[in-house]
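*** Fold description ***
***
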Amino acid sequence: DGNYEFAIDDRNGIFTNTGFFDNLSTGIHTLYIKDRGGCGIQEYQFSILSYPKFFTPNGDGENDFWEINGYDKTFYTQTNIYIYNRFGNLIYTIEQNSQGWDGNYGGKKMPENSYWFRVVLTDINGYTIEKFGNLSLIR
């Protein structure tokens, strides 16, 4: 219970009466919650994740790897990103410091198709999020 104002990414910025923000960029953000009664400001860090719907690993330097964007490796202490084929078989695990998935499995190019991913991220507070989705590999 209380009367609060909210701001994003700037503790000394403009606070609003609503806690809804749209058009936030991919990446780590900080939400500031200020009590209008003067009891202080709380902050909450969160991330906006994004991923490409398709990638084209053809060696041209554009969209050659599929990866999740918007997470900081210092904010998320544990990252697990898995790629599955349409039959549910695990074909790739994206390591924390890798460029992402290059469209290969066992040294062979995977065919153009839809694939699925599962992302499990644990942040510095111990909070875990899990997301699922699909992507297309285009050759």
